[in-house]
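Hey team,

Sharing the Beta-glucuronidase run so nobody has to redo it. Sequence (661 residues) first:
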Amino acid sequence: MKGTLFCLLLALPCLVLGQHRTDNSLNSEWKFATDPVKVGEKEHWQDTAFSTRYFDKVKVPHCFSTDPRYFFYTGTAWYVKQFAAANPGDNHVFLKFDAVFYKSKVWLNGVLLGTHEGGYTPFEFDVTTLLKSNNTLALQVDNTWDTTTIPGAKTAGPNSSSNQGLLYPWINYGGITRPVHLITRPATYISNTKIIATPDLVKGDASIRIKAFIRNNGAVAATSAVNATIYRNGTKTNIRFKPQSVKVEPGSIVPVELTGTLPASEVTLWSPDAPALYSANITSGKDTIATTFGIRKIEVSGTRLLLNGEPLKMGGCNRPLDYPGYGSMDPQEALEKDLVMIKSGGMELSRISHYPVSEALLDWADKNGMLLILEAGNWQMTTKQMDDTLMRSKFRSQMREMMERDWNHPSVFAYSVGNEFLSNTESGKSWVRDMGSYVKSLDDSRLVTFASMLLGNENLRKPEDEASHYVDFVSANIYWNHLKVLQHIHTLYPNKPVYVSEFGIRTDDVASEKDRINYLKKAMQDFRQCDYLIGASIWTFNDYFSRFPGTNPNGYRPWGLIAPDRTPRGMYTVWQEEFAPATIELLNKKDGRASIRVTARKDFPAYTMKDYRIKYNGHYIPLQTLHPGDSQVLDIDLAGGAADVALVKPGGFVILEKTLN
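Structure output:
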């Protein structure tokens, strides 16, 4: 009843998550104003009595950098919203921001709730004691950067010469860029859950470990019983957990672990081609929380990446979060358009971004099958910055916020602790060693890496000369001499898999798109000679706005397989063919029929193809399971003397198309 009352009084969309837990949207209309000389706080813009009559009206999520009135504004700005709410009774109410770029300061009814730094991760406040029937929420946001922000400018050093050291190569898209929520929970509630689902590949069953973090925001100690139920496709499974009873003191968080075994008959493994998901309902006293997860095993064996015991080599991409009119917002219609193109282009194992992505992206990747490396923070930090205690603390904070939000997503298989820093220095080595250990202390079920720009340096003679010595697999940004650099990496790290985290060429570095296509084909020839290569991500999927030196006068860095408006360039089509896991070959044609051979690649990319289909002239032929190197010959009808033939992945994604005349 209390949850329903909240929905009515707020007059906003409300998701009822349980008898004592609701999630109310605080999106839609807010008041907005820039504050270029930073007088807002001094003039008490945060106070309930302050008039926002001359503020503009905007719709949250909102990216002020793309609003024509404030295009690329850098500085302080304010958001104000009035909303009604009811007395929550014994429940507590929390104000949650999914992301605000970059620094935030938040007031409710004139009282400072707190601050947050970090532009891509969530934060929240308990607002129970401040909530009234009518409320004023004020947020000050600052998207400026300096040498202490992440990302930010560089301190003086060998990799920060000239004006390049003052900038980072994407736009500081400011604003409340992701949704805002008003959440009700019991005073003692589940603040987070962590699910580790590990299959036994011999027995076929799976170990399910659930860690529930029970938090008490009440005034007295509370005792709570914790239990969980697992579902597959809405049907309750037969796993049983032993309920745990826990006492939580006021202001404390106590982790509680539930363990059980899911019988083999109910285990369906998650993979990119078969993204099977389970759901868990976890209860603690009056609180219930639901989350999804997948059962899969990721491991490194020598130079191979194994998924559920099978070797995997896949293509991928880097997707700078930049969409015309949206900036760093990721509305569902734009996000899904990009992800369908990425999946259809064979870009399924990706170091997807330099910073935490949206939950909606990860949800899509879980449901449709992608493997992602998540990265936070360190973009070309200098040695001074990597040694700085404050910078290390900020990085750990942003990394932790990302990991604690994302660690139940089966699509996440690795974490990266940075990109293109001086990893051959003692500072760089210490960073990777220490941050890698920190990541593993939070989540040891996934792999750790970072993107190195230095591994083509022939002065690196032994593994300890560079920080890749400390990672589970080597990630390297390689733009030229791909084979030579890869062979050098393999000489340095003969027992580690190698991942090309960036390669590519700009549209304006060549005479025509044909030259980019030739670059791609030559790179793929090199990659296919390296049996230790597990993946390669194009830089980039899309063009993106930037202030970095070398950006074109139109504001874009034109690395993309697609143009800013999402029109595919010629390279995208060739990319589909090169990154498809199989080839289609015409053997012969006779009497209106054709014989074709479908061959699973055995070099790169390479993985077992199960439940794929060939589509031709509106008809489908199921393919048998093809292991790398396997072939299948099909006889098809050439209606009208020709046939459009396509290779279709599970899920209906068309990844390779050919016309047989």
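The chain has four domains: 2-185, 188-285, 310-579, 582-660.

Ping me if you want the raw files.
A.
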